[in-house]
Amino acid sequence: MKDVRIETEYIKLGQFLKWVGIADTGAESKELITESKVKVNGQVELRRGKKLRKGDIIELGGNKYRIVD
Known about the structure:
- It is built from two helices and seven strands.
- The protein has helices at 13-19, 26-34; strands at 2-5, 10-12, 38-40, 43-44, 51-53, 57-60, 63-68.
- Strands 1-7-6-3-4 form a five-stranded mixed beta sheet, with no helix packed on it.
- The model has no long low-confidence stretch (mean pLDDT 96).
- This is Ribosome-associated protein.
- It comes from Acetivibrio saccincola.
């Protein structure tokens, strides 16, 4: 699992995918999310604007990321 540090209270899921380099564009983020390829805390997440906060775990393609402060 890779820890990802954020400096703000939250980051939106679409922004997060770009921040960690999974997606190059917002359109690519949207496609990954709408194709049910992204899980947040073990549940498939279909909202690009889902607010991720410290402690949340994001899964995609066998990789896991944890939001830390």
